[in-house]
Write a structure and sequence with these properties.
Structural class of chain B: alpha+beta
CATH class of the largest domain in chain B: Alpha Beta
Order of helices and strands of chain A: HHHHHHHHHHHHHHH
Helix content of chain B: 25-40%
Largest sheet of chain B: 4 strands, mixed
Distance between the termini of chain A: 38 Å
Oligomer: heterodimer
Radius of gyration of chain A: 22 Å
Shape of chain B: globular
Strand order of the largest sheet of chain B: 12-5-14-13
Order of helices and strands of chain B: HEEHEEHHEHEEHEEHEHEHHEHEE
CATH class of chain A: Mainly Alpha
CATH topology of chain A: Formate dehydrogenase/DMSO reductase fold
CATH architecture of chain A: Up-down Bundle
Number of helices of chain B: 11
CATH architecture of the largest domain in chain B: 2-Layer Sandwich
Largest sheet of chain A: none
Number of domains of chain A: 1
Helix content of chain A: over 70%
Strand content of chain B: 15-25%
Number of helices of chain A: 15
Shape of chain A: globular
CATH superfamily of chain A: Formate dehydrogenase/DMSO reductase domain
C-alpha cells in the first residue's frame, strides 16, 4: 500500500491545530506565571511531575538527534548526509524546548543563573546544566558552520529566506534594507566550514554523552529512591536518547524531506528506520534487565515502584504507550513494511512520541513510595499526596512547549537552508 | 542567682500554661511548691504569700538546702495537682494523677539550662541532637502544631509530622507514634545534590537552607530518605476566603530573619525544612516541638556536652535511628 501525503491538504488543518495549541498553551503559561505553582498537581511528596519528565524527554531528543548527526559529520556516514543539518537543527530546537520546560518548572525562575554564579561542583544537576550549556554553545556554533555555506548561497534569494540568511550572516543592511537584494552568489569555502563542523562535532559527542548520561546520573545518584538508584541509569538514558532522537529524525525525514517519492528518500527512511529499530531493541533489552532483576530480587524500595508501573493507578501509561504504541506496534510496522516511507515514518513517530511515557514512568514511579512507612497518612494535605496526575495547567504548559518547538522547527525548516537539492560536500 | 531566677520564671510560665488544669475547678492558689531535697505538696487555698512564707520557713527548719519555692496562681481542681516527691539532679519526681505530665518541667528546665550553656560555646563546639522517647509519645501531634505555629508554615509544609501506626491484631492491638522532624543527618544526602549550594550542614550540625539562594528545583526533596523537605507552593490556609488572616500575615523568624509569605518571594517557591528552630536556640529557647511535648518524649541538647540529658539518653540500649542503611548518620535518635 502506498499512502500519499499531500502537504497542501494537511497544511490548513495542521495550522489550525497548531494555532489552537498555541492559544490554549499560552493560557497555561500565563496561569503558571501569574499563580506560580499553585495550579500544579505535583506535591512535596512527588515533587517532580510532567514537566521534569518532559524536560528529560526533550533533552533526550536533542542528545539523540545530535549523536546521530555526529554519525555524519564526525564518523563520515555519507548515506545520511542530506539530513545532517536537519539533525543539528532538531537537536537545537529540542534543547530549547527542554530548557524552556525546566525553566518554567523551577520555583524561582529569576534565579536560574545561580547555577553559574554559585554552582555546586558535587551536584549532578549543576554538572548537567554546565554540560548542556557547553553543549548548547558547541551545537549552536556547529549548526551555524554547517549551514553557513548554504546561507551564503541563499542570501541573494528574494523574500524572507534571503533576508533571514543575510541576518544570520551579519549582513544587516541587506537583511533589513529595501529590496531588491543583491542577486549575487558569493563564493564560499564550504570545505573549510565542514572541517570546523567536524571538530565541533567531535567535541560535541562526548559533551552530549556526558550531559545526557549526566541526566541519567542525576536520577541514579539518589540513594533515597531505590527505583532510580541503579548504575544502569546513565546508559539507559543515553540509549533512550538515541532511540527517541532516532525516531524523531526518521519521522521528520519521512514526511518533511523535499525529495519524497524518490528512491534515495525511501532508502534513507528505510536506513534510518533500521537504525531506530536496532536502538529500540537495545533499549528494550536494557529495560528488561532493569525490570527483571528488580522484580526477581523484590526488594521493596525498588520493586514497589516497579509494581506501580506495571499495575498501579496508571498502568496504561506503561502497557498502552510504552509497550503497545511505543514498541510493539512500531516494531510490527517497521518489520512488516520496512520499505514503506509512510509506515516507517509513522512507526518512528510513535516511538518518538511515546517516549514521553517512558520518561514519565522513570520520574514519577521513583517518587511514588512513601520514604517512611506511614508517612503518607501522617498528615493529610493535598500537597503531601503520593498520588499524582498532571493538572490541566501542567498539560497546557506542555502543549505550549510542543507548539513552541514545532512552530520553531517549522519556521526554521521553511526559512533556513536545512535540506534541499544543494550539493553536499563529500568529506 | 540568675540561673535560679530564670528557672523560676520559666517554671511559672510553664505551669500557667497547663490548660487542662484550668478546666472548671474551685478557685485556689495552686501550682508547685518546691524545695531542693524536700517533698512538697499541691494546692494552697487562701493567701499565696502566707503559703510561700510557711513553706520557706519549714524548708529552712528542715535544712532542706537552697529552696526553690513558688506558687503559681491558676484555678484548678485540687485532684489534678501533683505531689512533689523528690528533687535531685534537676529531676523532679512527682506523684498524683498528672505525674507523667508534671515530671516534664524538670527535664525541660535541665535541657533549657544545657542549651544556654551550649550557646555560650563557639558554634563548632556544639552538636545539636534530638532524642525522642517513643514510649512517652502519646501521639497528640502537639509538636506538629507547635512547629507549624512557630514557623508559620503554609498548608502542606509540615516540618514535624507524627507517623501513626497500628500494630498487632485484636485483642493485642497497639498504636505507636513516631514524630519525624528533619533528621539533621551528619552525612546529609540532600545538600550535595543542590545545584546552587543553597543548603548545607552548619558547624553545629543543623542542615539549613538559604531561602534567598534556593532556586526551587526540588532535587533535595527527592534526595531526602526521610521525606523531611517540603516545597512552598505559595498556598495559604485562607485561600478562597475574602482575606488573609493575621497569622498568615505575620512574620516567621526562621534562620533569625523575618520572613513574610507574600506574593512569590521567598520562602514561597523554596524548599523548606525543620531547622531545629535555630531562631529559638539563639534566644536561649528549646525548639518549639520539644518545649511543647506534653509527654516529655522529645529531648534536645548538645551531644558534645557529656553531662547533657541527650548525651545520657543517647547511651541508652533502646536507641535506634531511622534508615541507618542509608549511611546518613541522623542526629535524631529514637528510644524504642
Amino acid at each position: 500500500m502506498r499512502v500519499e501525503i499531500s502537504q497542501k491538504n494537511l497544511a490548513i488543518p495542521l495550522g489550525i491545530v497548531w494555532l489552537a495549541a498555541l492559544a490554549v498553551g499560552l493560557v497555561g503559561v500565563s496561569q503558571r506565571l501569574l499563580s506560580g505553582h499553585e495550579l500544579a498537581n505535583y506535591t512535596s511528596s512527588i515533587p517532580w511531575g510532567l514537566w521534569v519528565a518532559a524536560y528529560v524527554y526533550f533533552v533526550g531528543l536533542s542528545a539523540g538527534s545530535f549523536l546521530l548527526s555526529a554519525l555524519i559529520y564526525v564518523f563520515g556516514l555519507k548515506r545520511l548526509e542530506p539530513i545532517g543539518k536537519l539533525a543539528l537543527f532538531t537537536a537545537l530546537v529540542s534543547l530549547l524546548a527542554a530548557l524552556l520546560t525546566i525553566w518554567l518548572d523551577i520555583g524561582h525562575m529569576e534565579r536560574f543563573y545561580y547555577v553559574f554564579t554559585r554552582g555546586n561542583s558535587v551536584s549532578m544537576m549543576a554538572w548537567m546544566v554546565w554540560l548542556y550549556t557547553a553543549y548548547f554553545i558547541v551545537l549552536s556554533i556547529e549548526f551555524w558552520f554547517a549551514i553557513r555555506a548554504d546561507l551564503v548561497e541563499t542570501a541573494p534569494e528574494p523574500g524572507m529566506k534571503g533576508r533571514l540568511a543575510c541576518l544570520l550572516l551579519g549582513r544587516f543592511g541587506r537583511a533589513f534594507g529595501p529590496s531588491p537584494l543583491i542577486a549575487r552568489s558569493e563564493p564560499h569555502n564550504r570545505e573549510a566550514d565542514m572541517r570546523v563542523v567536524r571538530v565541533l562535532g567531535a567535541i560535541g559527542v562526548p559533551l552530549a554523552i556526558a550531559f545526557h548520561g549526566g541526566v541519567g546520573a542525576l536520577f541514579g545518584v539518589v540513594g533515597a529512591r531505590g527505583f532510580w538508584n541503579a548504575p544502569l541509569y546513565p546508559l539507559l538514558f543515553i540509549v533512550g536518547a538515541l532511540v527517541s532522537g532516532g525516531g524523531l529524525l526518521t519521522f521528520i525525514t519521512a514526511f518533511f524531506l523535499p525529495n519524497r517519492g524518490s528512491k534515495e528518500h525511501r532508502d534513507m527512511v528505510t536506513y534510518l528506520g533500521q537504525i531506530t529499530l536496532g536502538l529500540l531493541a537495545v533499549y528494550l533489552i536494557m529495560v528488561w534487565a532493569e525490570f527483571s532483576i528488580t522484580w526477581y530480587a523484590d526488594i521493596p524500595a525498588e520493586s514497589k515502584p516497579l509494581y506501580q508501573v506495571l499495575g498501579g493507578p496508571y498502568p496504561w501509561v506503561f502497557w498502552v504507550f510504552q509497550v503497545a504504541l511505543g514498541a510493539v506496534v512500531p516494531i510490527a510496522m517497521m518489520t512488516m513494511r520496512p520499505r514503506s516511507v509512510f509506515w516507517v515514518g509513522t512507526a518512528a513517530f510513535l516511538i518518538a512520541a511515546c517516549f514521553l511515557a517512558t520518561r514519565l514512568n522513570i520520574v514519577i514511579p521513583g517518587l511514588i513510595e512513601p520514604q517512611l512507612k506511614g508517612l503518607d497518612t501522617a498528615y493529610t494535605d493535598s500537597r503531601l499526596s503520593y498520588d499524582y496526575f498532571p493538572s490541566l495547567m501542567e498539560w497546557l504548559v506542555l502543549i505550549f512547549i510542543g507548539a513552541f518547538a514545532s512552530g520553531l522547527f517549522y519556521a526554521g525548516f521553511r526559512s533556513l537552508p536545512l535540506v534541499g537539492g544543494r550539493k553536499e560536500v563529500q568529506s | 542567682m540568675a540561673a535560679r531566677s530564670s528557672r523560676r520564671k520559666f517554671l511559672r510560665k510553664l505551669a500557667t500554661g497547663l490548660p487542662a488544669l484550668a478546666a472548671g475547678g474551685a478557685l485556689a492558689h495552686t501550682g508547685v511548691l518546691l524545695a531542693k531535697g524536700k517533698k512538697g505538696a499541691g494546692d494552697f487555698p487562701g493567701d499565696a504569700a502566707v503559703w510561700r512564707s510557711k513553706f520557706l520557713d519549714q524548708a529552712r527548719a528542715e535544712k532542706a538546702g537552697t529552696a526553690v519555692v513558688d506558687i503559681i496562681d491558676a484555678p484548678v481542681r485540687p485532684t489534678d495537682i501533683p505531689m512533689v516527691m523528690d528533687i535531685s539532679r534537676g529531676h523532679i519526681a512527682l506523684a498524683g494523677p498528672t505525674a507523667e505530665v508534671a515530671i516534664r518541667p524538670a527535664a525541660v528546665i535541665r535541657m533549657q539550662e544545657e542549651l544556654q550553656r551550649a550557646m555560650e560555646k563557639p558554634i563548632d563546639q556544639r552538636k545539636w541532637i534530638m532524642v525522642i522517647d517513643l514510649q512517652k509519645c502519646v501521639g497528640c501531634s502537639a509538636c506538629t502544631i507547635a512547629c507549624k505555629a512557630e514557623n508559620r508554615t503554609p498548608p502542606g509544609v509540615v516540618y514535624n509530622p507524627v507517623i501513626e501506626e497500628e500494630v498487632g491484631e485484636y485483642p493485642n492491638v497497639r498504636r505507636r507514634f513516631l514524630p519525624r522532624p528533619c533528621q539533621q543527618c551528619d552525612d546529609p544526602p540532600c545538600t550535595d545534590v543542590c545545584p546552587v549550594n543553597a543548603t548545607w550542614k552548619r558547624e553545629d550540625g543543623i542542615v539549613v537552607i538559604d531561602y534567598n539562594a534556593c532556586i526551587g528545583c526540588r532535587y533535595c526533596l527527592t534526595a531526602c530518605p526521610y521525606g523531611a523537605r517540603y516545597f512552598d507552593f505559595g498556598e495559604d490556609y485562607t485561600d478562597g476566603t475574602p482575606e488573609k488572616q493575621e497569622y498568615e500575615k505575620a512574620h516567621s523568624f526562621e534562620y533569625g530573619r523575618a520572613w513574610r509569605r507574600d506574593g512569590d518571594g521567598s520562602p514561597v517557591g523554596n524548599a523548606r525544612k525543620c531547622q531545629f528552630c535555630i531562631h529559638r536556640l539563639e534566644a536561649g529557647m528549646l525548639p518549639a516541638c520539644v518545649a511543647t511535648c506534653i509527654g516529655g518524649a522529645m529531648h534536645f541538647g548538645d551531644s558534645n556536652d557529656p553531662d547533657s540529658l541527650v548525651s545520657e539518653l543517647k547511651a541508652s540500649p533502646r536507641v535506634m535511628r531511622l534508615k541507618e542503611e542509608q549511611g546518613t548518620n541522623p542526629k535524631v535518635h529514637y528510644l524504642v
